[in-house]
């Protein structure tokens, strides 16, 4: 039985693994790209974002997303507002905790999606384990009102700041994927830094190909 895809870009659970840490007074610009390949089609999705910390515990980000579908048409897909709140100070307890809230509206369609989730991170000497448990509700035109769950895991080896190999696991509706990732950070003066992420996730849903390449650049200042 082949893979069942509930949607191509917005329904793809392979995306950013969120960390609970919020840096006071930080601002950021971000670009994300995912390319999802099946046996006979490829969908390219991109997100552009600006974020700013409102308090030392809360950061708000606004996104514009675009997509190239299987017909090679590239265009605006939707808008998203995201809030991430740090529940514990870094290192305060045995693990760091945070929560995530997102609201998304599809372009040219009264279709909406709300996501809430719990963020977890624990450091073990030279490694870090990050978990995201997400609950997603979507409703509106051309979609069935439904609740979905997603799980994201990243186990990272802090080899050096600029190169940190990792393993990532994603689960979603009719999807399980795993693959290698690489994360790097280049720090500038003060809190300024450039972060990059690259991962290749292979779907384990059946005999059909279901692979996703994800790449992200994030500049914090």
Structure description:
The chain is mostly beta strands and 221 residues long. The chain has a single domain (27-220), classed as Porin (Beta Barrel), CATH 2.40.160. The protein is built from no helices and twelve strands. The chain has strands spanning 27-37, 42-53, 58-68, 74-86, 96-106, 111-124, 127-140, 146-157, 164-172, 175-187, 193-203, 211-220. Strands 1-2-3-4-5-6-7-8-9-10-11-12 form a twelve-stranded antiparallel β-barrel. The chain starts with 26 loop residues before the first strand and ends with a strand.
Characteristics of this structure?
221 residues; 0% helix
Total domains, how many?
1
What's the Cα radius of gyration? 17 Å
* CATH first level: Mainly Beta
Q: Per CATH, what is the topology?
A: Porin
Low-pLDDT parts are 1-10
Give a quick rundown of the structure.
Helix content is 0%, strand content 64%. The termini are far apart.
Question: What's the layout of helices and strands?
Answer:
Layout: E1 27-37, E2 42-53, E3 58-68, E4 74-86, E5 96-106, E6 111-124, E7 127-140, E8 146-157, E9 164-172, E10 175-187, E11 193-203, E12 211-220
Antiparallel strand pairs: 1-2, 1-12, 2-3, 3-4, 4-5, 5-6, 6-7, 7-8, 8-9, 9-10, 10-11, 11-12
């Amino acid at each position: 039985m082949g893979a069942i895809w509930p949607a191509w870009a917005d329904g793809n659970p392979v995306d950013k693994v969120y960390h609970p840490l919020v840096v006071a007074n930080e601002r950021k610009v971000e670009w994300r790209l995912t390319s999802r390949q099946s046996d006979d089609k490829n969908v390219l999705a991109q997100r552009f974002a600006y974020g700013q910390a409102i308090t030392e515990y809360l950061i708000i980000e606004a996104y514009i997303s675009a997509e190239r579908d299987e017909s090679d048409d590239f265009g605006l897909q939707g808008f998203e507002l995201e809030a991430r709140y740090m529940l514990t100070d870094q290192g305060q307890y045995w693990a760091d905790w945070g929560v995530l809230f997102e609201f998304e509206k599809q372009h040219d369609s009264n279709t909406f999606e709300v996501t809430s989730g719990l963020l977890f991170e624990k450091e073990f000497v030279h490694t870090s384990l990050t978990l995201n448990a997400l609950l997603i509700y979507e409703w509106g035109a051309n979609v069935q009102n439904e609740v979905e769950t997603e799980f994201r895991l990243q186990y990272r080896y802090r080899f050096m700041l600029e190169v940190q190999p990792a393993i990532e696991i994603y689960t979603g509706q009719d999807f399980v994927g795993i693959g290698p990732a690489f994360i790097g950070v280049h720090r500038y003066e003060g809190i300024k830094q450039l972060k990059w992420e690259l991962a290749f996730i292979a779907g384990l849903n059946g005999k059909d190909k279901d692979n996703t390449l994800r790449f992200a650049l994030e500049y914090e200042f």
